[in-house]
Design goal:
single chain, alpha+beta, 7-stranded mixed barrel, 3-stranded antiparallel beta sheet, 37% helix, disordered C terminus
Amino acid sequence: MLSVIGAAVFAAIGIVGLKLQDWLPSEEAGTEDKLTYDEVIFDKNKVLSIDITLAEADWNAMLEAPLDKTYYPCSITINGETFTNVGIATKGNSSLKRVAEEPDLNRYGFKISFEHFVKEQTCHGLDKLLLNANYADATYMKEYISYDLHTRMGVPTPLFSYADLKINGQLRGLYLAVEDIEESFILRNFGKTEGQLYKPSYLKGESFYAGADLSYQGDDSSKYETILNSAQLGTASKEDAQKLIASLKHLEEQTELETYVAVDSTLRMLAVNAFIMNDDCYFGDQIHNYYIYEKGNCLTMLPWDYNLAFGGYTNPAKAITAAELVNRPLDSVTPFGSWEKRPLVKRLLSVEEYKAAYHTYTKQILQDYFEAGVFEAEVDRLQTLIDPYVKEQTETFYPYEQFLQATAMLKKTGMRRAESVAKQFSGELGITHAEQIGQQDKLVDTGDIDLKLMGHYWDFGAAYGTE
């Protein structure tokens, strides 16, 4: 099995190493001759300048009814290059609702669709660009670092960079520009928009997950309504449903896994999520914030939405402490070891070869990113890069002073997590929940870790202005 994984790894590295224009057919890129937005927009060493102009009446209508997510026409200038007849809408779900509930706060996230009003219009091949407001993240870095780790580990990941945003001449502040996972993303990473793309989300109160947990529920497609209704590349067809169900059946039976599941990519993604303590996803407390791309009957999970990583989503109802989070056992993975509710985790890690590969990737993150000093250096680099923009903001979730404290806390939290992971691999600390029972004296100390200081879903801050 590992030999097949190795082949997949080298294939992935080959794709990532190529420039898109070296291999992508021009007709796949809409009105653009080539996909070049990776170079034009997503420069990690600079902060994008984005100016958006739309009719004042449309802007006011958007602010009055943000939950409608209505698209309005606008022009957008990115680093001096202007695109007209572009669509702009608010974005988000729970975060959007929480911001909308605050009468004195209009710091919304936005979705920019270059093709909404003009068919096949793109920005150097990019169809949609997201502008994330760094909701509930006083560090402004959690999502950036999470995507950076996924990218370094060879997982198909959205492109990203910081952006200084103005709308109708008014400064909106520092945002994270993210490539949306739609057709241009599929073209960039997989070559063609074949198969189907899903964005499942389990809603509490439903009687069953309806496919969102990726469990096999038999051959009746009605049992998979949540995932099938989340299809992004047009309505899911009967053939799409059959392919999805076939893949989930093979996952359940653990047969031909590497044909029906992108095993290596999933293990790498799992290693990243376990390390960054992200509970707002499939691997964590919730069953959402991920995409599944099906191509040739093979399911690939794609990473999404990491502003609540590093402890930003620790449900107080479940009383997860900083000590429990930082010392979470690698081989239990999900909160409280609830493997039964995460079939993709359970079926893969119950295969010893795959568990060994998962350990290898986790050690790689530990050694090459944290122990090698890359993590701390990256936090310092990003703080220097974005500091002037954070300081200049007049509307934000957290005051500038908290940003400075939060970035220092982020470094401390990340390194404590690395310390715990190292102890788990050395055998000094248990690597499962069962093994950690009675090991309180061996846990990495987190007495000076304040997760809430870094931003928190349940209390994203009361200070919205910075004088």
